[in-house]
Amino acid sequence: MAVNTTSEQALREMEQFLKDTSDEGQQNPFLLSAAVLISFEPENLVPFTRADDTPEMGWNDFFLYCDPVKRVATGNWWQLRPLVRQQALQQLGSREGFRQALAVNPDRAKEPLQLLYEQVLTGAPIDVERLQREELVSLSYMMEWLKYLPSPELAVLQQEVQKAIPMADLLVPLYKLAGTQFVGRRSQLNAMAEYVGILPQPTDFFSSTRRFFRNALNDLGDHPPLLIHGPGGIGKSTLIAKFILNNAGHRNDNLPFAYLDTDRTIIEPRRPQTYFIEAARQLMLQCPEQQEELLNIKEALTKSLQREDQFESAKGGYVGGAMALEFGRVISRIKTPVLIVIDTFEEVQFLGKEVVNGVWSLLMNAQSAAPNLRIIVGGRVIVENRPVQELPLKELDQEEAVELIGGELEKVIEPSEVKAIAGDIINVAGLNPMSLRLALTIVQEQGIHNLKKVSTRNWFMQRVRTEVVQARLYGRILNHIHNDEVRQLAFPGLVVRRITADIILQVLAGPCNLDITTPEEAADLLDLLADEGALVSRDLTDGALYHRQDVRRVMLKDLKEQVNTTVIKAIHKNAVNFYNTYSDPISRAEEIYHRLALGEEPAAIEKRWMPGIENRLRNALEELPQQGLLWLSAKLGVTLDENMLKTAGLEDWENITAVSAGYSLQTGNTQQALEAIRQRNDRSPNSPLYRLELEALRSLSLYQEAAFLVDEMLASFPQATEPSIRSEINLQAAFAKEALGLNEEAIRYVKQASVELPPEPNKDGIRTLVTHMRLLRKMGDRKDNERKLLVAQAIQWLANKELLASLREYPALFREIVAELGKVMPQLLENAIDWLGIELRNDQQVGTLSQALVDWNTQLQKEADTKVGELQLRAGLDDDLLPTWFNYIKKSNATRLTSNIQHWRKELYVNDIDRKGKGIVDFDKALVDIFRNNVDISINKDLLQGGSGYGFTTFK
Fold first, then answer.
1. Crossing angle, helix 565-579 and helix 585-598, to 10 degrees?
2. What is the reported pLDDT for 73?
3. What are the Cα distances from residue 454, in Å, to 448, 450, 642, 772, 881?
4. Which range has highest mean pLDDT (558-562, 725-729, 917-921)?
5. Cβ atoms within 10 Å of 716's Cβ, excluding its own
6. Sign of the CA dihedral 603, 605, 610, 612?
């Protein structure tokens, strides 16, 4: 077989060779040996030969079908390519053949993956639940190699592996947090076990009934959330991860858990339902008996988020609290304690007390319905004014610190040296785990003798706070940078948050006194700085270096104190000039940061704002002067503490308060929103609080007060008030009057709202138009002609595809449009089912939908001249009676019900394309009636009667 020029050609030829020679009994002995080894060293590979093997078979072209193994640090290791391995195994034919092939290499490497592979090859039992994710993934590949082998055991094993991988995915971040070296914290682990209600991990055959305490049934008041708190670097996340790993995933006595890290993008504290969406997803993997119920909750919550209207909170309807109760009821049916962990809770606290209240309220709702639910929260500071059980986390004790140091340095020092060296390190770094690990990094890079130069015992004995100790250590890392130019760049260059070669050349070179003039020199310097992993990390998406946030937080103050103000200003100005020429989100965020750091006027910076850059500026707040802090807080939706807020000017106060009040309205904390809005009585001409105050009153069903306040507002508006504000307040008045049943008065306000708006199609215009249409419909036939004119105008406006598409962002408004136009524009109804889903808020609506399905099914049955209607067949019902359909709808998952109706409407037209058959037309009318009912409920929530609660689309 000739050598080919490419590995792909060689592989194809090898595959053909294997195929051709297998029929002739010719087999490559080296391939057969390598096929049963995960990896091999060629010089030690013994070929698997048989009596009839031809002598020329062997090394010829062998390496063309192998790849080097890069994961092994030392040695010359290779492995077969997967397809070649699979065919070679097929030539071996059976487990006996595998055993014989293994036997010819008795000195093969006994690494864990090889031992696992041998279990698969020989059919030995494998405890899948004890394997970590990497082993499970490898195991799935091994079974793919053996897919030709008829084996019931392998089929069962493959099913077990596929189920186990998602569970292993949950544990991967926890293994990273726990690390390889965990010491001490025994009393804290015991306290956590006591709180949760479990015995320590059993060493014998404890059953779940013996392991779990009976206190799981005690009152909530006895078990408020356990708050593990302490300063940064103290080891909160590590402790939590260790506790979960000690207790999760063990057969017959596992602790179902959900680990919810606020730092993850799937968690949005401002939308606290996301905590329960992710919790339901994780618990579904661990609690098969509750899987369907948890899936229902997950999908219902996901759909409710899609229906949230950021502009019309009073009409949106907050369902989080009710869904949290439903989540708790499902959890209560699990026969063990269930643990929910919320980590890095300081990220929630950073956003303000309103966000904390929103998250905490949902947690309490869930726990009130689930006596077996335990909640552990990890954060830096205490959660104020909330019931918690505190577990403060302090520094390691001396013995634990020595154990940590010994474990980390076991490869570079003798056991007899541990105690003395540990004492030196502890004297410098203290007993904070992060500080210790930082000091150990210096030891490993610089050696113990240089470590002693980091500081003196006198300095340490001043007992400065932990963060300052960390800052001093990071500062000393600057002194250990070997390259002088890198040291100059880092100090003061790390005033900037992001560094590239262009930034070095155009922003930092001058202020840092760097003697570089070419892009190549800047790129070389960037690479040298990248080696300082204790200071910077590289963003793999754009190659830039970012000042590590944990480092920046503790050392920036020192950096600013030691660098001349003129130099710092020069860096900020250079950065503004550099980023000003770019328009991408990263550049715009950095430009705004540097402008704010320079103290530029927010009014000027406002022109440079770009939606979508909020997350890139969150970490900047603590670095900014007060003026910039107030402006950016409003942009980021961060509520400042009351003392800081009192110092704000009127417009800054209004903008920040509007964010917090809007959030409170979105999460159902309406009274809290109203109290925040009324902290001050004065208003700027175009205050965002006018609308929010009226929405709060309407959400509280205080319609009379809202109507009275509108008249006061309209009478007091100064000339500078924008027409859009006047229009909005008139429209709010119309909603209040409509809720009171005063439709004539409501129309007067709607007409005034229209006067203030531009005539071309736009969101505010269609909102006013559809409100007017609804009021005219409610006034009966005498207003039909007037209403038809408005309907025609609305149809014309909605022909604008851009306007129609934009309405997806305003679900409350789109619901109102469908309620008025769905019977004459079927496409709107299709969009509504897709965008909003089938919203059923009470039993009356379930009855309406049930009757519509019965009637449609009957019509289909007549058209097809069959005994059973097509809808009944598709729903899998025994009969088409109204109670049967009623129960089917109430038991259906909300997403599944919506999906079914979508398909039925598209596939079961009575008269095919023209859609004029009685069944489909009547069914569509019933759907529109349900939308109309939901709109009435959103205008006046007192109309909500029956069912399980506001906003539910799943009934149990």
1. 150
2. 61
3. 10, 7, 41, 75, 83
4. 725-729
5. 9
6. negative
Residue 554, Ramachandran bin (φ over 0: left; ψ between -120 and 50: alpha; else beta):
alpha
CA–CA separation, 352 and 349 (whole Å): 5
CA neighbor of 722 nearest in space, from 676, 690, 680, 759: 690
Which pTM does this prediction carry? 0.73
329 three-state secondary structure: helix
Q: At which residue do the structure tokens 């394309």 appear?
A: 913
Rounded CA-CA distance 690/658 in Å is 10
Q: How far apart are CA 265 and CA 611, in angstroms?
A: 17
Question: Which pairs from 672-678 meet CB under 8 Å and 24+ separation?
Answer: 672/354, 672/357, 674/700, 676/354
Contacts of 388 (CB under 8 A, 6+ apart): 224, 225, 226, 227, 377, 382
Residue 390, strand partner residues: 227
The number of residues making up the chain comes to 956
Cα separation of 671 and 442, whole Å? 54
For residues 362 and 323, give the distance between their C-alpha atoms in angstroms, rounded to a whole number: 9
Two structure tokens written together for 800: 């604008």
Pairing label, strands 373-379, 389-392: unpaired
Q: Is the four-CA dihedral 48, 54, 60, 61 of positive or negative sign?
A: negative
Between CA 817 and CA 825 the distance in angstroms is 10
In this predicted model, what pLDDT tens digit does every residue of 118-144 receive, in sequence order?
A: 998 988 888 887 788 888 888 888 988
DSSP three-state, residue 712: helix
913 vs 417 pLDDT, higher one: 417
Q: How far apart are CA 849 and CA 871, in angstroms?
A: 13
Whole-number Å distance between alpha carbons of 212 and 464: 43
CA 486 remoteness from chain centre = 37
The confidence score (pLDDT) of residue 771 equals: 97
pLDDT per position as a tens digit, 437-464: 777 776 666 655 554 444 433 333 333 3
In a 3-state reduction of DSSP, which class is residue 336? coil
Q: What is the pLDDT of residue 554?
A: 64
In eight-state DSSP terms, residue 202 is: P
**Which among 81, 206, 73, 66 is positioned nearest to 141, based on CA atoms?**
81
Helices H / strands E in the chain, number of each: 48, 10
Crossing angle of helices 186-196 and 236-247, in 10° steps, is 60
Q: How many C-beta neighbours within 10 Å does residue 628 have?
A: 23
Dihedral angle, C-alpha 437, 438, 439, 442, nearest 10 °: 120
Torsion angles phi and psi, residue 660, rounded to 5: -65, -40
List the one residue out of 248, 238, 263, 256 whose CA is nearest residue 171.
248
* Half-sphere exposure for 777 (CA within 13 Å, toward CB): 16
Residue 176, C-beta contacts closer than 8 angstroms, at least 6 positions apart: 241
Alpha helices (H) in 307-352, listed in sequence order: 313-316, 320-332, 346-350
Q: Please give the mean pLDDT across all residues of the chain.
A: 83
Alpha-carbon distance of 59 to 78, in angstroms, equals 14
Q: Is 80 exceeded by the pLDDT of residue 6? A: no
